[in-house]
């Protein structure tokens, strides 16, 4: 029997770890690109305690497909990949032959 770990509240999110388990309802989402700057996606989230926060994710490129948006990232952590093709070393120190869609 597997025991699932509890969900984290948005209020408790910080940079102490790379993976959080949250349940959210996205109340608004939009994409902003101001050339020549990088694009970013902004979301307004609400968790089960009705705490609202604005989240901004900045990346070199978002890809929008039939299943929603994604970005290319490290195969080990959730950090974005700063290269389009070929091998790279992530900021976490992991060598990647290719990036992973996230």
From TrEMBL:
<dbReference type="InterPro" id="IPR012340">
    <property type="entry name" value="NA-bd_OB-fold"/>
</dbReference>
<protein>
    <recommendedName>
        <fullName>Nucleic acid-binding protein</fullName>
    </recommendedName>
</protein>
